[in-house]
Hints:
With 192 residues, this protein is α+β, with helices and mostly antiparallel strands. The chain folds into 2 domains: 3-94, no CATH class; 107-185, Lrp/AsnC effector binding domain/regulation of amino acid metabolism (RAM) domain (Alpha-Beta Plaits), CATH 3.30.70. 47% of the residues lie in helices and 20% in strands. The protein is built from 8 helices and 6 strands; from the N terminus they run E-E-H-H-H-H-H-H-E-H-E-E-H-E. The protein has helices spanning 13-36, 45-51, 54-65, 71-78, 82-94, 107-112, 127-135, 161-172, and strands at residues 3-6, 9-12, 114-122, 140-145, 152-158, 177-185. It has a 4-stranded antiparallel sheet with strand order 4-5-3-6. Strands 1-2 form a two-stranded antiparallel ribbon.
Amino acid sequence: MLLVLVGAEIMPLLYWLTLAMCSIIIDNLIGNYAILTGRFSKMSESSIKSSITKEDEKLLAVLQHNARASISDLARQLNVSRSTVQTRLQKLELSGVIKGYTVEYGDAYLATLVAAHVSIKVRQKLTARTNIELKQIPQVAALYAISGEYDLIAIVQAQNTEQLSHILDDIGNLEGVERTTSSVILETKFKR
């Protein structure tokens, strides 16, 4: 048996290893308690930014490349334990850093779609209602509030020009929409 000299007492090495393991377990329990009780769920933007560690940033980078990576694969790539990855993912999800995991269309499929940027002028008292109605149109892939003459820009993706025309009519006919201007995307030069 290996022994370690501490002051005037002799303590077995096993004692120190057990103490270290207990410390790690307690840290994990405290972290899990914070996650389960929602301590991270009501964080402001500034506290979210300050709570993201370098290890979290590495995890996010790997997930951006492949959101379907297994916990084991993530742990192996980041050189950490699976429980560490699970705890970090829970923290990032509950704090709102990770909202979800989505499908990104492949280039071949995107090439078959007709996409357009639709600038939308909204009646100010109906902005919230218009946003909700636009969210209900599945072909509206994204909606941005902007400055300038128009209030919003919608990214619309349709199967063909006929469907795009119907969607543009639907958007123009919404009660809160004053007018629209559309620009069909001919080619994507690059996307990051």
